[in-house]
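Please produce the structure of this protein holding xanthosine-5'-monophosphate.
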Amino acid sequence: MPRSLVLILDFGSQYTQLIARRVRELGVYSEIVPGTAPAGEIAARKPGALILSGSPASGYRAEAPLPDPGIYALEKPLLGICYGFQATAQLMGGQVEKAERAEYGTATFVRDRASPLFEGVPKRFRAWMSHGDEVRALGPGWTRVAHTSSCAFAAAMHERHPFHLIQFHPEVAHTPHGRRVLSNFLFGIAHLRGGWSMRGFLRQAVTEIRTRVGEGHVLCGLSGGVDSSVVATLCHRAVGERLWCVLVDHGLLRRGEAEEVRRELGEKRGLKLTVVDARARFLERLAGVEDPERKRKIIGEEFIRVFEEEAKKLGPVEFLAQGTLYPDVIESASAGWGAQVIKSHHNVGGLPERMHLKLVEPLRSLFKDEVRELGRALGLPDALVDRHPFPGPGLAVRILGAVNEPDLDVLRRADAIYIEELRRAKWYARTWQAFAVLLPVHSVGVKGDERSYERVVALRAVDSSDGMTADWTRLPHGLLARVASRIANEVRGVNRVVFDCTSKPPATIEWE
Ligand code: XMP
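Below is the modeled complex.
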């Protein structure tokens, strides 16, 4: 069990997951629960402290998701951020109204009095605000701690209880003293014990897998991606020879991907790995299919079929290891006012029931960055651990329209050049996901003295934290020029390269 637990009550802010991550980075384990969770449920988890998140809602509206007032009677150290501040102020006798002008961006805070929350923070400091409502009056027992030029109550504390409220967001990078404020809360006010780390998590996860699996056997689908590689390596450490891994090569992988998994996990680490060459099967079923959703469906069905066939050839298996991550778990837990719905893509959906397999999901409490850290703690190479997310249907959703082998070959070459140049320019790790897309149009060009009429490749690179929203990465022009020139010159069949500068929304990350 974690030594100290912080529960984050989620009211739907885009920053809730960031709060959880910041707290974990400070060495304290944290989890997200729905903001409206009953106080009894919260108490049963025995948290060391509570943090109330922001929200797109207005506390004074009837439909607003308010916390159970019973949480204040738990006497737990409590930090209310933005909406968490307003909702608390309102429930404890204060007054909240629409701000005269909404404030988005950094504001200068001026402290009016000392507070343990601001220990080591200058009297005037800049912090990130994003709010349309504000607290106009505090209830009895509360004291104002800070103000800004437009917000009279920008921070407050309770005189008797360990309750602290702030209008700004300490979790975002634009709040320079944010880390200090969170650390003051966790250690100075809530007196929590730190020390939660990936190494500790690793030891604990191995023990838990052993307990769950007992003498049983585990099956794990490998995709070449980070999550499944980490799950497999972790399970291997826990149950050794009783783990079977299956990689279905559907022919829609990037260049060298299947070989790399075979080398890194199979050969170097000795995982029992079967690579199934199902390329022909998938291509046959995809022939002539243009509709993206149909393509996804066909690939999903065929995947399960191949996986199941392979699994049956193995010995007895009772468990299926899956790389479910924390954002997928929160999605189902926080329905309603929780974080926005994330697409969850499980390649082997339906299989556990059909094969009567019990699930092993050792990454259920981790964020993507933490999975990478765990991968490093397990000794996996950077090239595997830092790999960008890759969709289950693979290159099939990056070739617009029908998929065939010659086009897959063109796309693989173009993509490999792009990724190679990104790595060389040290931009690979600075962008969240980057890839090439093959468009179904021909454009006129000139190669040598001859007119050409060839395909167009689009380059995509996005910054994101979870794939739900994304902005296009401002890659340097010189880098783009090199990539475009190399692709148009080296990849036969392509004479034009364009860069996609659309954010999500309104576009999505993948083109299909
Ligand atoms: P979109 O295109 O929806 O993508 O903005 C968000 C993230 O999800 C990945 N993605 C998928 N992953 N199966 C997957 O396993 C899919 O069908 C799928 N579609 C999109 C995408 O690469 C991005 O990281």
